[in-house]
Amino acid sequence: MSTVINVFKDEALEATAREAIRLDESQALLEKFVTLVRESGTPDEEVAGRYIVDRLKALGVPVTLHTPELYISNPVRAELGISIAGAGGASGLGTADGATLSTRTLHARPPAMGRSTGDAAVEGEICYVPSKYAGGTSSLFDLPDAARGGGVDDPVRGRIVLTEGFSMPASVGAFERRGAIAQIFIHPGKNVHEGICTSIWGAPTADSLGRKPAVPVVCINHADGEALIADVQRGAVRASVKTWLREGWMRCLLPVAEIRGQDDVDEFLLVHGHYDSWYEGIGDNATGDAALLELARVLWGLRGQLKRTVRIAWWPGHSTGRYAGSTWYADTFADELDEHCIAQLDIDSPGCADATAYEEVMWMAEADAVCRSSIQDALGLPSTRVRPLRAGDYSFNQIGPTGLYMLLSNIPGEERQRRGYYAVGGCGGNIAWHTVDDLMPVADLEILRRDLMVYLTTIVRIVNAPLHPFDYAAAVDEMHAAVAKYQEAAAGEIDLGPVIHDLARLAADIGAWRVAMDARVSRAPGDHELRRGTNAALRRIARLLVPLNYAKGERFDHDPALKFGTLPRLEPAASLPQAPAEMKPFAKVGLQREVNKVRATLRAVARELKR
Ligand SMILES: [Zn+2]
Predict the structure, then answer these.
(1) What is the distance in A from the centroid of ligand 1 to the CA of 276?
(2) Measured distance CA(401)–CA(201) in Å, rounded
(3) pLDDT for 132
(4) pLDDT at 141 over 90
(5) Which of 79, 290, 557, 610 could disulfide-link 242, Cβ–Cβ 3.0 to 4.6 Å?
(6) Contact 499/570 with Cβ under 8 angstroms?
(7) 462: CA distance to ligand 1 center in Å?
(8) Ligand 1: distance of its center to the CA of 186 in Å?
(9) What contacts 24+ positions apart, CB below 8 Å, involve 26-31?
(10) What is the pLDDT, as a whole number, of residue 319?
């Protein structure tokens, strides 16, 4: 069992911060941003970046403007032509072999980072692979069953695949491996939602560039998709796919405000969100940008009472560069983030109309007490935690600060169901997400005020707590429970017992150490060295445990944007019984190496407790 962190609360300061919220800056930002289509690398995005810098300067908040070159892919347009053999009717066209063709063109949009064909159409027969739409936001990144398959007689090979769902990287990658020459995704509603289909996180490297989708991908709406499925089920249907995307290195603006703390000035909380958007993007993420600006204003006013530093960053390149801005920042300021970042707090799509529920809020297990108590104390509301997805601007997991929030308030699930909404990845659950409809009615400033109250309470608690308010025993408990499940699923194929034993002991050790350190620090409030040294140890523990809990790859790299389980290095153990017999010995060798890495990491954490 983990310890319960006594969350530090300065109720007077928290109340002062919440009462300081005014929404005029927020409203002005929304009114400005609704005039801007903030695609990365475009003049509109630059206007938005300059606006943020100008407002910060007018408010007196110190700001640094970075100008990185980011790798961006902006969808321009697509053409999807359909031709049906053997159909009659007025639109019928004669063909060389005498068969009748009916042809039509469908409205289609290419996701970012798909292949740009230009005029060189990809033509072929459509192969329909039925799939299900995501059941909820948390399953948007799942690999659908339809994407599993393969082999020489796979009907997808050499054809244009047609399937339901968003063009998520797991599906797109799987269909490409199955040999699809182009891909058509049917969206669940009236509007096509914009998106990005590469699994490459941030700018590609020479090694990862090969994972960029090599085939054209387009998305169509539900009605067109249903009609096309019906055609395919009646007989052979051919498609011609053309896509145009503007791709390359683009200079973008990346503003970072800094409000320096009074005591431990080097230690900083990174608060961040993206300011690029699809279309005018009011709910995703102009409301978040307005929140960041208001946080900067309020925290600047309270700077004399903040013990540590808050950095507030607005990212470009989120939508069309797969989190390119936050990834650039992680790469460029890796050393500072590694040494001094207390935690990272992501702000995406707050303040949306009717979003009154905190039913699926992301935070890492160790932040449970601080996040849950902040929502409770700011608003008197309960909340339900969701383990953070490998999504949003969580570009820091492989450096290792604890992460909290991403999306925050949502339209209650029951209400979304009543409205017939399907799962989307922002806008408080409003299906205007990533469409032309994401305009002013999607936002609600009074809901934004509530979300700001949560953010401010959380921020004050984190930056003013004597010791960082994160319970790393809870993170170890989470991994312990996951590895116990992997062990059970492995059904004796491999023994994860030693890891389970290590995790159980480490959780107990961290808990005891934390209780002792809290007591020592509270007995000696003037002992700056003790406090700073203990916090540095907490950050080093996070640098070991966060990558272990959330990443497969090395520290300072960026894993693909795919769904991972808890402690993903050991996740393959769970599917060992299903592995082909001849592959099992190879899989076990790999898993043994992962076990060794995991145990070495846990020993390193244990050593931190003894320093
Ligand atoms: Zn967003």
Answers:
(1) 9
(2) 18
(3) 80
(4) no
(5) 79
(6) yes
(7) 24
(8) 22
(9) 26/287, 26/290, 26/291, 26/293, 26/294, 26/351, 26/445, 26/448, 27/290, 27/445, 28/55, 29/55, 29/286, 29/289, 29/290, 29/293, 30/282, 30/286, 30/287, 30/290, 30/440, 30/443, 30/445
(10) 97
